[in-house]
Recover the amino acids of this structure.
């Protein structure tokens, strides 16, 4: 059986270091906002190439705090329209709603699954104040084109980088440093995964960093002095400590993902299957390797019969979810087609070449 994602195997190489670190933390007896969080914020800002990193409780909160931070700074106002990719994970859209803003779903490019700059440009209205680019499945969105649109209309450009830790553009700039502010999730299954919930914000904007530092800790700038109506959304010491250990291996583990994707791209030759388009180098870090096929459910069942487990990201588009009923009225045909056809193949840094070959052979026999 080839599992879709073996988290136990992924974390096994870090077990000894984790246990040693756990002892240190228990000995110290300091569990919230201490040395480990501070070290992670500094390490991750350095890794992404940004001035600031603020650890928070999860990726959804990271995005909500960016939007609320910009509302406090007067850069956004409740009711403003925010462009989001129509085919994103629902969290992107929930964050916009949570902040009191209006999500405007825009169709993706079906070959890369990322925001289509042409559709984005034609969706800007006088109410539009921000674009959230999602680096979906681990591939950088076309940030150069989106940034041109944002500059032209004076919009904020925000990255939802929850699936793209470490992805690099041609100039070597990483996800998290390509916009005004970026949100990350360290949910266990992500490319940089904690052993529980965790998230972060990266930005070069001093004012935003200051507001978010307060907002995520009860709106407090100094202890027991509250300048904002904040929340409790902190990264805790244990998760930060584990992330510090795993960050050192992130590039190597992304390179392994890229290697596996290269094998899939070179050797899957079944005409019934469309492979994803991706740029060179490390612009796609393959959080997921997503193929498309007309009879998706049939292919998934066939692969299961061959001992290969796959997943669908995502079976239902956000605008067709019951929770969002009444929010979006126009049809989104590209998005709807994508959701009916996508299938995520197993990919992870701990997959062996032999397992990859078995997946390729099964797909070519289908
Ligand atoms: C995982 C994910 C999130 C949310 O992260 P959590 O840590 O689960 O809150 C947001 N956006 C995208 C694109 C994601 O994949």
């Amino acid at each position: 059986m080839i599992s879709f994602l073996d988290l136990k195997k992924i974390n096994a190489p870090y077990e000894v270091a984790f246990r040693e670190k756990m002892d240190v933390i228990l000995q110290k007896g300091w569990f919230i906002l201490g040395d480990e969080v501070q070290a992670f914020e500094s390490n991750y800002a350095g890794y992404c190439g940004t001035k600031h990193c603020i650890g928070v409780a999860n990726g959804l909160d990271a995005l909500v705090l960016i939007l609320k931070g910009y509302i406090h700074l007067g850069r956004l106002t409740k009711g403003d329209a925010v462009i989001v990719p129509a085919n994103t994970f629902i969290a992107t859209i929930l964050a916009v709603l949570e902040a009191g803003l209006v999500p405007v779903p825009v169709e993706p490019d079906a070959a890369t699954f990322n925001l289509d700059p042409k559709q984005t440009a034609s969706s800007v209205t006088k109410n539009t104040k921000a674009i959230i680019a999602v680096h979906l499945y681990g591939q950088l969105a076309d940030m150069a084109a989106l940034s041109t649109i944002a500059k032209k209309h004076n919009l904020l450009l925000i990255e939802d980088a929850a699936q793209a830790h470490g992805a690099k553009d041609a100039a070597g700039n990483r996800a998290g440093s390509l916009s005004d502010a970026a949100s990350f999730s360290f949910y266990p299954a992500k490319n940089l995964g904690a052993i529980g919930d965790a998230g972060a914000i990266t930005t070069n904007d001093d004012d935003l960093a200051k507001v978010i530092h307060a907002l995520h800790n009860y709106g407090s700038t100094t202890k027991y002095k509250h300048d904002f109506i904040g929340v409790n959304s902190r990264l805790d010491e244990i998760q930060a400590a584990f992330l510090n250990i795993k960050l050192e291996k992130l590039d190597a583990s992304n390179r392994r993902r890229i290697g596996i994707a290269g094998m899939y791209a070179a050797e899957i030759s079944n005409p019934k299957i469309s492979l994803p388009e991706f740029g060179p180098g490390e612009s796609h870090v393959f959080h997921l390797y997503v193929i498309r096929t007309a009879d998706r459910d049939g292919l998934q069942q066939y692969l299961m019969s061959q001992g290969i487990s796959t997943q669908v990201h995502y079976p239902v588009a956000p605008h067709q979810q019951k929770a969002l009923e009444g929010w979006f009225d126009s049809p989104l045909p590209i998005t709807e087609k994508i959701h009916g056809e996508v299938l995520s193949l197993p990919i992870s840094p701990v997959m062996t070449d032999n397992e990859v070959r078995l997946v390729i052979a099964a797909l070519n026999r289908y």
